[in-house]
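Can't attach files on this board, so I'm pasting raw text. These are the components:
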Amino acid sequence: MRYPYMFINLKRIEKNARYITNLCNKNGIEVVGVTKGCCGMPEVANAMLKGGVKFIGDSRLDNLKKIRRSGYNKELMLLRIPMESELEEMVDLADISLNSEISIIKKISDIAKDKGKIHEIILMIDLGELREGILIKEVKDYIKQILELGGIKFLGIGTNFACFSGILPTYKNMKELVDLKNELEDFFNIKISVVSGGNTSALKLIEDNKLPAGINQFRVGEAILIGRDVSRNRIVPGTYQDTFILVAQIVELKEKPSVPTGELGRDAFGTIPKFIDKGIIERAILALGKQDVDIKGLTPLADGIKIIGASSDHLVLGITKSSQEIKLNQEIRFKLNYSALLSTCTSPYITKIFLPD
Ligand SMILES: *Cc1c(COP(=O)(O)O)cnc(C)c1O
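---
Top answer:
Structure tokens for the assembled complex are below.
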């Protein structure tokens, strides 16, 4: 096998999905498994389903298409509010989408009617995160218009936190969403079946018993994929983090000074690197670089290995403190954070291998 490659432990992803789904289901919440962190790998979608998620959501139609073509036969949700240029394809591929623009919703309705379909939407509400969503003052006007559309089923309301501005979901803002749902049901005399409260960052509210009743859907990616919650920089209790493992090979192993010699300019990325003098250290170079993966998101699995820095194609490790002996040509393994997972999955230079059970 040629390095670098990534091992994908489907069994652990399935176990993560089962743990998260049980936690949510006990609290009356259904889980949409989100696969965008791994480019919608159908194998991962399948592991999530085996673990109990209700159906799959992804931000990109290309990913939804891959999943559909793999034989998947449940609902699919498009997470990113749709581009006008993808509406036709979206109505063909996705059963549900998240939306925030009335003109687009009307176009979706027309397209769905033409195709003899009904497309389901969740209206996104911005409760302070300032990414997608309409403001509360616009909600009634929007819903009034949506309810008149023949090609649309108004499924419910949703919100998203901790992705763009880093605003955390709390009892207070989740309660706002539930109160809004109740008010809208009374005002329009309708039943709103879905209140889609959030993503991985909202799991903490369940753990702490601080989620208001009435939220009934979470869209969860990160916690299932890598068992982490980046919004609070924490591990999600009960999950595995070593689900995706990046493996690279050592191409140089030498003792060298810890500080470079010569006149210091900028590195290949325009920054002036800083070095601390620790005398002569043992250094290993891996054939892996910034062109392959977001280096900042890597954590070596073995003890005593430190990432000193990287250029496009080389990753320099300090291995003086390594507990095991390290040799030239040896492989080094890393765990990934969300950002490293995204970059590894999109990298054409990294082979992906699914571990057998
Ligand atoms: C990415 C995304 C999610 C999933 O977020 P995680 O933090 O990975 O759980 C949920 N909803 C929307 C709208 C998203 O874009």
